[in-house]
């Protein structure tokens, strides 16, 4: 499309000519492009390059080019990304949906290959390995064998998909964690494509079906997490549409003090930015402190962007970026292209006079050793006060633990691995070096190894009560730990490698020793997990471990040795050495010089080249796996893993009529603040007596073969039964903790799923009421798909997390927001009586809906709710019944024309 904004220029790299659309030349037209934040400029380039007058218009470009930091326009941005990344927990259901779309297209007499990814898609299998075996040299191989026993059917499906769909590449198991693989291998920073005989260069941009896709922002790449539903639309050439954002600048200055890690910094940053409420905003880091952070340090800060609630957390591309790309084995021509392109576009290095909507100051020298917990990433606690944090948690959460201002710790005698032990409240039962947040950072991984070395040399050991595990984020990590000699010391403390994937952080911590689990459940003990992850929500790490603390890898090793979180490691001894003397954390904490020395002498470019030369080389089981062929998938009705979803049952090309009201709706749940997607759709273990567990047993699956909810996401029958299945969810209707509700008007308490089935049979629409930050946490599409399948028509909350709100709309569930300061309690609604929500004239951005109800005094009540359909395209998605139905109708309409 011709436009005055499309100013084409060329640059030459290694004798090749590359065309690009110039941003600096827009300055000559009078636009202050150089004052725009980097993220806005990169998205602006995408709009200019993809302008076609339909999906992306000249008006869209003009709206963004005039972005004003202090008067952000109330417009939407149709952002076409260069690629999509997925992990298998979210990727399998996304590909299942595409396969179902192909079936429906074929049924309607249209070529099924129209359903095809239009941009490159990488699906990394990293979420399916579970820590069943640990503390033994064979743990890695044993867990991998178990992984294939459980997941062969899913893996065969993914191999089929790789052959059936163009533009889809599958990275097999045991290569690494998606975000670390993206950082070390997949990301290009600058992409190229050939059109009409010309090779164009443009910024690498993406969305991913995992919240922590933002880790790639540390490499200067614009991208963030979306639900699988949005990702499917992006794959099918639909723009990712969002409201024009505010951009917050975080001014970093000073340097981290010796011994302070990037983990301490990111926990401090998470607490700080949560207080500033950056939810839904873009964050960019700038200032003199940026240059003091290594690329992995930056990736650590960007990784936890979802924990502080922002959409992205971008660092600039600079000399450190170039050095990292070179070290990570990128071809020299690619590295040169990145540097020349970013400089030509004015996107390289420190930016001057950039306008930000808000500036937040952070002095790196003020950061101290920290942990976060016991249940939220923003609950930062100075290292020395972790015990106080745990005791306060016990006092507030357990009525039988405190009296007269004193907190009492319960204890139970157990026998573990042939030894008599006492298990107490606060004892560490899981210690996991896990998660892309920290395993991607050599400084903290080497520090963990050096601390283990010093601890072993002092004669310290780990109690058999502690389940220890190490899940490196990539093969490169194992390589440098082995070659430096540090892995041997981690092994001595029980931190054997258990798998290359997202393990404990996602809830794949596996079972505890039966004696420990029995004592926890029988005696109601509040034990702890320590992990180097990014998420520690209730019941996420392990359903029976109540307190979970995030911390750096060396601190994970330290607390594994200490054996309890009720200890001040800054002042109390970590344990006694072989000489009988007290050993303190400071005695074994490695210096920055020691850490940097190991890194300089061990980590080489050749490691990255070798480990990523052939990603299929690490798993013969994958290579030998047979897979179906053909354009359409052959569904197996007996399968308990992969089932054809019902989302297109009864589908027609006609757009449904707009609903006028939700009449006589019943509340399915009444929830409080900070309800996460883990509460709504758990990823971890499946309880035997749950609706999902009963379903699996009815279909011949033994409890020991249940696998996890995450692994069963290709089967809607399991997932809808697991909706609101978290055993820590607190539904005011039920009067008890767990996956229960009160079926009204009978007043009978039962599983949420069982009540929903009764309501659906009666044709009763369902509503969920909630507080602030509903849907925080992982970008989990089943947290929207599940409620939709059990009859939820609307969610009424005080506020929503960004990704989950869009996922609800994507599945045809209406998000509604209470007026500021109000909730279901303040309006004094009687939740035992029906509600009616009047939607006439309300289905538009910023629309208002009226909810009528009966008050607790028996009088008629009414409240005006904000319709959280924030953009015109979200209105369209909702009108169509969901984003997939919208895309399907668009494809069918274009095919017929």
Automatic annotation (TrEMBL):
Every Aconitase A/isopropylmalate dehydratase small subunit swivel domain range: 694-820
Broad enzyme group: lyase
An annotated Gene Ontology molecular function: aconitate hydratase activity
Cofactor: [4Fe-4S] cluster
Catalytic function, reaction form: citrate = D-threo-isocitrate
Protein name: aconitate hydratase
Pfam families: Aconitase (PF00330), Aconitase_C (PF00694)
SUPFAM superfamilies: Aconitase iron-sulfur domain, LeuD/IlvD-like
Keyword field: Iron, Iron-sulfur, Lyase, Metal-binding
The species this protein was found in: Thermogymnomonas acidicola
Highest taxon, organism lineage: Archaea
Aconitase/3-isopropylmalate dehydratase large subunit alpha/beta/alpha domain: residues covered: 67-563
Family statement drawn from the similarity comment of this UniProt entry: Belongs to the aconitase/IPM isomerase family.
EC number: 4.2.1.3
């Amino acid at each position: 499309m011709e436009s005055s904004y499309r100013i084409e220029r060329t640059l030459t790299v290694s004798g090749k000519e590359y065309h690009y659309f110039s941003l600096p030349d827009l300055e000559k037209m009078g636009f202050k492009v150089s004052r725009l934040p980097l993220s806005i400029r990169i998205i602006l380039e995408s709009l200019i390059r993809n302008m076609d007058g339909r999906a992306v218009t000249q008006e869209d470009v003009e709206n963004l080019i005039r972005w004003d930091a202090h008067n952000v326009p109330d417009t939407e941005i149709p952002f076409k990304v260069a690629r999509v990344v997925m992990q298998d927990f979210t990727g399998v259901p996304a590909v299942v949906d595409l396969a179902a779309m192909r079936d429906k297209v074929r049924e309607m007499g249209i070529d099924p290959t129209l359903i095809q990814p239009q941009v490159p898609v990488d699906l990394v299998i990293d979420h399916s390995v579970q820590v069943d075996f640990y503390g033994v040299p064979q743990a890695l191989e044993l867990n991998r064998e178990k992984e294939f026993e459980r997941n062969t059917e899913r893996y065969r499906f993914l191999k089929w998909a790789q052959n059936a769909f163009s533009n889809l590449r599958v990275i097999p198991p045991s290569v690494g964690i998606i975000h670390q693989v993206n950082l070390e291998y997949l990301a290009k920073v600058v992409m190229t494509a050939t059109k009409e005989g010309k090779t164009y260069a443009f910024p690498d941009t993406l969305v991913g079906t995992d919240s922590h896709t933002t880790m790639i922002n540390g490499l200067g790449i614009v991208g963030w997490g979306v639900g699988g539903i949005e990702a499917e639309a992006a794959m099918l050439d639909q723009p990712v549409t969002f409201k024009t954002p505010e951009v917050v600048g975080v001014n970093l200055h000073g340097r981290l003090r010796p011994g302070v890690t990037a983990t301490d910094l990111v926990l401090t940053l998470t607490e700080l930015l949560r207080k500033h409420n950056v939810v839904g905003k873009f964050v960019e880091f700038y200032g003199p402190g940026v240059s003091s952070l290594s690329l992995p340090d930056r990736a650590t800060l960007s990784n936890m962007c979802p924990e502080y609630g922002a959409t992205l957390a971008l660092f600039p591309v600079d000399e450190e970026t170039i050095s990292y790309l070179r070290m990570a084995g990128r071809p020299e021509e690619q590295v040169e292209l990145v540097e020349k392109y970013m400089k030509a576009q004015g996107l390289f290095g420190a930016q001057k006079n950039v306008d930000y909507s808000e500036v937040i100051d952070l002095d790196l020298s003020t950061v101290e050793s920290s942990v976060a917990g016991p249940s939220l990433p923003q609950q930062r606690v100075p290292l020395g006060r972790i015990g106080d944090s745990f005791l306060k948690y016990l006092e507030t959460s357990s009525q039988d633990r405190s009296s007269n201002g004193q907190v009492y710790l319960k204890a139970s005698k157990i026998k573990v691995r042939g030894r008599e032990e006492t298990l107490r409240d606060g004892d560490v039962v899981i210690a996991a070096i896990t998660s892309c947040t920290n395993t991607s950072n050599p400084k903290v991984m080497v520090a963990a190894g050096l601390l283990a070395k010093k601890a072993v040399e002092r004669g310290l050991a780990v109690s058999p009560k502690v389940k220890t595990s190490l899940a490196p984020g990539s093969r490169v990590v194992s390589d440098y730990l082995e070659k430096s000699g540090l892995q041997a010391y981690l092994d001595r403390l029980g931190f054997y490698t258990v798998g290359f994937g997202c393990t404990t952080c996602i809830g794949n911590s596996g079972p505890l020793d039966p004696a420990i689990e029995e004592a926890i459940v029988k005696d109601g003990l509040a034990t702890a997990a320590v992990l180097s992850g990014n998420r520690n929500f209730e019941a996420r790490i392990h359903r029976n471990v109540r307190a979970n603390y995030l911390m750096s890898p060396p601190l994970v090793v330290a607390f594994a040795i200490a054996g309890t979180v009720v200890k001040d490691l800054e002042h109390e001894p970590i344990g006694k050495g072989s000489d009988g003397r007290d050993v303190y954390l400071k005695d074994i904490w490695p210096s920055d010089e020691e850490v940097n020395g190991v890194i300089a002498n061990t980590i080489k470019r050749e490691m990255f080249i070798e480990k990523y030369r052939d990603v299929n080389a690490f798993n013969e089981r994958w290579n030998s796996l047979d897979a179906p062929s053909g354009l359409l998938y052959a569904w197996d009705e007996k399968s308990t893993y992969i089932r054809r979803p019902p989302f297109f049952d009864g589908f027609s090309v006609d757009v449904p009529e707009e609903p006028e009201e939700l009449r006589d709706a019943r509340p399915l749940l009444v929830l409080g603040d900070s309800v996460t997607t883990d509460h709504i759709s758990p990823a971890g273990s499946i309880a035997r007596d749950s609706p999902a567990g009963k379903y699996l047993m009815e279909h011949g699956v033994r409890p020991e073969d249940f696998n996890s909810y995450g692994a069963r996401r290709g089967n809607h029958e399991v997932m809808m039964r697991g909706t609101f299945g978290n055993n820590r969810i607190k539904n005011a209707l039920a009067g008890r903790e767990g996956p229960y509700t009160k079926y009204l008007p009978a007043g009978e308490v039962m599983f949420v799923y069982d009540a929903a089935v009764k309501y659906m049979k009666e044709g009763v629409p369902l509503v969920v009421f909630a507080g602030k930050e509903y849907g925080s946490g992982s970008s989990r599409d089943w947290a929207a798909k599940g409620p939709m399948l059990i009859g939820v028509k609307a969610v009424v909350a005080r506020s929503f997390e960004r990704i989950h709100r869009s996922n609800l709309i994507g599945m045809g569930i209406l998000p509604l927001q209470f007026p500021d300061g109000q909730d279901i309690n303040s309006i004094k609604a009687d939740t035992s009586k029906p509600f009616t929500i009047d939607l006439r004239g309300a289905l538009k951005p910023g629309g208002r809906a009226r909810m009528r109800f009966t008050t607790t005094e028996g009088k008629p009540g009414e409240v005006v709710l904000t319709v959280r359909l924030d953009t015109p395209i979200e209105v369209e998605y909702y009108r169509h019944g969901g984003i997939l139905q919208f895309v399907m109708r668009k494809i069918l309409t274009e095919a017929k024309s």
